[in-house]
Design brief:
Layout (H helix, E strand, L loop, with lengths): L9 H28 L4 H10 L4 H8 L6 H12 L1 H20 L2 H12 L9 E3 L15 E5 L4 E12 L7 E6 L9 E6 L6 E6 L10 E12 L7 H17 L7 H34 L1 E2 L2 E2 L4 H29 L8 H23 L1 H4 L6 H8 L9 H13 L5
Parallel strand pairs: 1-4
Antiparallel strand pairs: 2-3, 3-7, 4-5, 6-7, 8-9
Helix pairs in contact: 1-4, 4-5, 4-8, 5-6, 5-8, 8-9, 8-10, 8-12, 9-10, 10-12, 10-13
Bound molecules: flavin-adenine dinucleotide.
The site of flavin-adenine dinucleotide has 23 residues, from strand 1, strand 3 and helix 13.
């Protein structure tokens, strides 16, 4: 087992510096344009694929880093470049984690490479759990998956919403209800292969921030997928449902559902994204505060400005430490007995929102314009307290875990 250390090893430092270079030279200069265009930055994704950043191999290497720090270090650097473009580059990873968390080895080997495509022909993937009436309340999900035994096919019907890459993806991973009696315990995840009839894109959302990342509804009408597209396979599902029914009869012991397994694994990674955005805004603010003069001196000469910067940096470092702890725990198999994954996401996302707001304030009128990147960073940061479980839901998870009380 990897010893815990806060010092990155040579390999990690090399990867961090390489990603930082890509974020600085390729992502950051393209950020304003794709934010305005509100479109998926395919040329930047392709560039990332050419140098090996947008690939299964790259994510697998970071994912299997024995210290757990591979993914958070990578996310922080890419999102330091720009959150919208970085989400377009890493959004496929959420679908990939959905397959890694619930799929068989064969499914992992078959579908994850197809999610990324090749540098010549890049593809993206989507993870579709949220629905118009089932956001935080995952148990209210209505999309149904019904097994057609005669054909060994699953038939999916329903409407998904807020899906990153929804409709423009090749592979869609769709969470659906297989047993409505069991609430969120009766869910399962399915692969919908590229070009499957019946899957279409609904409305594409015009967003406040991360506008270079495509977010849309996904409509499923009589979508038929082979039995082999049920993640984990039918036997495992039947066993899991039987256990859940048994536990429901005995009185409500907790069983993990398919979407939750994905979210638990990805929350510290979202925290790392938030740290990247916060750090980017802090750096712009620090630079501005030392060069902008008012009253005959740099504005950082005022404690009112300098202390804000001190607090910003302190909180960013604290957020990173929570993220690294949770990532290390997840990788080294330590259970989140105090909801450490949720803690890291909660704190880092709140810090990103507050630090980017402070950066706008430190830049004054300039901070409020699109001439300076903190305006975009502030809009982007608002997503972190919403997706992958809102801050309120993280607090629920933490409070329930700590107290054992089913707080509502
Ligand atoms: C840009 C973007 C990308 C996304 N990408 C994906 C994706 O790829 N795949 C996917 O499946 N989903 C995705 N989502 C969906 C996202 O995870 C949901 O928006 C989120 O879970 C919140 O659900 P909701 O929007 O329905 O809000 P609601 O659940 O309606 O919540 C509204 C408000 O009520 C609060 N609230 C709700 N219940 C409680 C409670 N019990 N206690 C206290 N407060 C509560 C919430 O915290 C929130 O403040 C994305 C969303 C966005 C905006």
């Amino acid at each position: 087992m990897a010893e815990f250390t806060l010092e990155l090893n040579d390999d990690q430092r090399q990867v961090r510096d390489w990603l930082h270079g890509f974020a600085k030279d390729v992502i950051r200069p393209a950020a304003a344009e794709w934010d305005e265009r509100e479109e998926t930055p395919w040329p930047v994704i392709q560039e990332a694929a050419k140098v090996g950043i947008y690939s299964l191999d790259f994510y697998a290497q970071q994912f299997f880093d024995p210290t757990g720090l591979g993914i958070p270090v990578a996310m922080e650097e890419l999102f330091w470049g720009d959150a919208g473009i970085a989400l377009s580059i890493v959004g496929t990873g959420l679908a990939a984690v959905g397959v890694l968390a619930n799929g068989t080895e064969e499914q992992i080997g078959t579908w994850i490479p197809q999610m990324y495509g090749t540098p010549e022909d890049v593809k993206v993937a989507a993870f579709c759990s949220s629905e118009p009436d089932a956001g935080s309340d995952v148990a209210a999900m209505r999309t149904r998956a019904v097994y057609d035994e005669a054909k060994d096919e699953w038939v999916l019907d329903g409407t998904k919403t807020w899906a990153t890459n929804g409709g423009i993806a090749g592979v869609h991973v769709v969470v659906a209800v297989v047993d409505p009696e069991l609430g969120s315990k009766g869910h399962a995840s399915f692969i919908v292969p590229p070009g499957t009839p019946g899957l279409s894109q609904g409305q594409k959302f015009k967003k406040h921030g991360i506008r270079a990342s495509h977010t849309a509804e996904v409509v499923l009408e009589g979508v038929r997928v082979p039995g082999s597209c049920l993640l984990g396979g039918k036997d495992k599902l039947d066993e899991r449902l039987a256990r859940a029914r048994e536990k429901a009869r005995k009185g409500g012991e907790r069983v993990k559902n398919a979407a939750m397994a994905t979210f638990e694994a990805s929350r510290p990674a979202v925290g790392a994204m938030a740290v990247g955005t916060a750090r980017a805004a802090y750096e712009v603010a620090l630079d501005y505060a030392t060069t902008r003069h008012q009253f005959g001196r740099p504005i950082i000469d005022n404690q009112g400005v300098a202390f804000q910067l001190a607090d910003m940096r302190t909180r960013i470092d604290a957020a990173r430490l929570l993220v690294w702890r949770a990532s290390w725990m997840a990788t080294t198999g330590k259970p989140f007995t105090s909801a450490e994954g949720s803690m890291s996401k909660l704190y880092a996302s709140e810090v990103a929102k507050e630090v980017t707001a402070q950066a706008v304030q430190i830049l004054g009128g300039n901070g409020y314009t699109r001439e300076y990147p903190v305006e975009r960073m502030h809009r982007d940061a608002a997503i972190y307290t919403i997706f992958e479980g809102t801050s309120e839901i993280q607090r629920l998870v933490i409070a329930r875990t700590l107290s054992g009380v089913p707080i509502r």
